[in-house]
Amino acid sequence: MKKLGLILLVIILSTTFTTFIILSKSNDGNVSKHKQSKTHETISASFDHSKIQLKKKHSYPVVFVHGWTGTEGSFRSMLNRLTSVYEGPERALLIYVKPSGELIVHGKITDQRIPLIQVVFQNNKGSLDNQTKWLESTMQWLKQKQHIQTIDLVTHSFGGKTATYFLETTSKSRNDYPYVHKFVPIAAPFSWRDGPQDDSKLTVDQMKKTSVLYPKRDQLPHDLDVLAIGGEINKTEAGDGTVKLKSAFLGRYIFTHQKYQEKTVTGRMAQHSKLHENPKVDALIADFLWGIK
């Protein structure tokens, strides 16, 4: 009887142990499948298939210049969107320009396919002459120290006027700076002087007469390709709430020898300070610079 009892005990223990092994394997199998699923999801997430492929094999570094009272935050969101949505653009340099013209540079140009370069004036309410000199210092450094031969240029608000004046006043020393291939002035107040002004009552002819850009238009490079973007919230006359459309599109009388086009963005996100936060503007820039529809 003792021997029979011992045999039965062994059988029971063996059965229990076998059951435990089977259950353990079953549980491990479930955990393993769960882990594989998670790993697969993580891998899928690590490859951003939403990035839009660039059609052009070669693109140039893009320099971004903010507007009146602008800061590093002015173009930050746009740069982040461009790098996340499109295959090619990558943030490379953040350049602070002191009132003395001295540059404080963060970042490095390495092997980025399309380096994005952001320029920030420490005095963001400087006169047109001063901001133009600061932009000259930056461009000269890009050419001499970074050996950048050609760039595209994207600006917001007063930065568009500064960039235009830079292109006009450096016509005789153009070899000292990178060649500007394409230029995108977003809501540029071409009729302003050295800061914001109410030009709503000015006619186009009056804007021409008071503009510092219009008389020098013949000094602009003739092979420049320009896309002017203006905002229209509700009424055409109101423009983007800060810059009227007739001011933003005064470029049609300034860029008379260039390839020039205009695009109007409408709606709530067409407000002046929201234009560089607007994905529609991103799409216009991507189409113009990189041929992406």
From TrEMBL:
This is Alpha/beta hydrolase. GO terms for molecular function: hydrolase activity. The keyword Hydrolase applies. Pfam families: DUF915. It comes from Terrilactibacillus tamarindi. It comes from the Bacteria. Keywords: Hydrolase.
